[in-house]
Amino acid sequence: MPQPPKAKRPKWPGITWHSSDSSSHEPRVLGINPWITDFAAYNLWARPAGLLACLETLRQSGASIALLDCLDQMWQESPWPRRKNFGCGPYPRTPLPVPWYLSDVPRQFSRYGHAYETVRSALSHLSPPPDLVLITTAMTYWYPGAVQMLRLVREIWPRVPIAIGGVYPTLCPEHAATWSADLVLSGPLETGGNWQRVWSAMGGTAPPLPPQAGFNLALDLYAAPEYAPILGSRGCPYGCEYCASRHLYSGFVQRSFESVWQEFRAQYQAGVRDFAFYDDALLLRPTTWLLPFLHQICELPEPIRLHTPNAMHVQALTPEVCRALFRAGLTTIRLGLESGDFDHRFDAKLSAPQWQEGVDNLFAAGFRAQDIGAYILFGLPDQNEAEVLAAARLAAASGIRPQLAHFSPLPGTPLFERAVEVSDRPIAEDPLCQNNSIWPCVPGGFSWRTKRRWQEMLAQTMAAY
């Protein structure tokens, strides 16, 4: 069958208001996904899901919403690297001076995303102006991009209240409070009084929260998306010592199949064919929504591709789940191996028999080895090379490509205190030093020589099996 026509990207400036109704009195909320400031960044089906959930919740409650995503090609005129890998690819980048306390890191520090003047012009042309600006942050150590955006917004609209939310103010609220935002939103919008504070900042009274608050995403704000997220649950019941999931969202809540399917269907009808699961615990209680969702996908007139950039829990890869994933079009498979030492792990969710059974179930369902990668934690406090190599050998022996997942020490997690003790950087004082690109808990930190050596060792490990 012929492919549906792709929507053309809007011309400059690319920011438009989307109203909940025709009322001229509804408050206007602009959501901004700011630049990434880092030594490295690559787009793996990235969308600011938390911000999109906030905007949709506000729209359902009577607000008019708009989006500026500095990390997405929202305008025809913007130069952007061509993406060939199912919508993934590099971001445009602008070299920046390295922060002085990271000056010993032998890497180029950059701002990733749209050019500064492009963003400034787009904001300046937005009419009418917003009544509130929401700036999100996806990583604690990306806060400089959010701070620069805050200052730019303040310059353009001096009297418009600005709120900062996301991972950074949730895990580092005291540090986030130093940048003079009008609101520092720690945790989800719908909890902890954040909902009331946001409406109060706009001079109104908070209405009741709509159904599915925090789940529905304002994906229609992207005019011509190459990919879309699927969010079927929030939170994670596991308490891994290195993970901040429980601090970002307490508990574990799943959506209904009908809710997930309705959101997916709208993106499918818009021409999207690549979808990435955003769940932290995708495979838990699969009969709630996942299995009905996968079975329904098989009835679509045209196939799609599914991706799991977040590692799946291997112990939940039952034969039924694996077969359903294969038939539905799962293309990119990432597993959470993390360590090859099953007796001394920073989590208690995987055993050696469970690992082998889950991998066997994937192959029995029809998946190819080249489609599967196993994440192995690298750079943990007190970690030695033998632990990492053991995990790599285990993955390779199973026919799966090992991939290093670089450790980032996150405030509030059990491993953070030990990371503070072993790191030679002030990771508790400045979130910039929590950056996994600098290997903050590896003696001596990042080096190109060590990076190349690990690449060679992983290649040799795969070749040996």
Automatic annotation (TrEMBL):
Matching SMART domains: Elp3
Domain Radical SAM core intervals: 222-441
Region (Disordered) residue spans: 1-26
Protein origin, superkingdom: Bacteria
Cofactor(s), by name: [4Fe-4S] cluster
CDD domains for this protein: Radical_SAM
GO molecular function, one term: cobalamin binding
Keywords: Iron, Iron-sulfur, Metal-binding, S-adenosyl-L-methionine
PROSITE patterns per the UniProt record, alphabetical: RADICAL_SAM (PS51918)
InterPro entries assigned to the protein according to its UniProt record, in alphabetical order: BchE-like, Cobalamin-bd_sf, Elp3/MiaA/NifB-like_rSAM, rSAM, rSAM_horseshoe, rSAM_sf
Biased composition (Basic residues): 1-11
One family name in Pfam for this protein: Radical_SAM
Name the record gives this protein: Radical SAM domain protein
Organism (species): Desulfohalobium retbaense (strain ATCC 49708 / DSM 5692 / JCM 16813 / HR100)
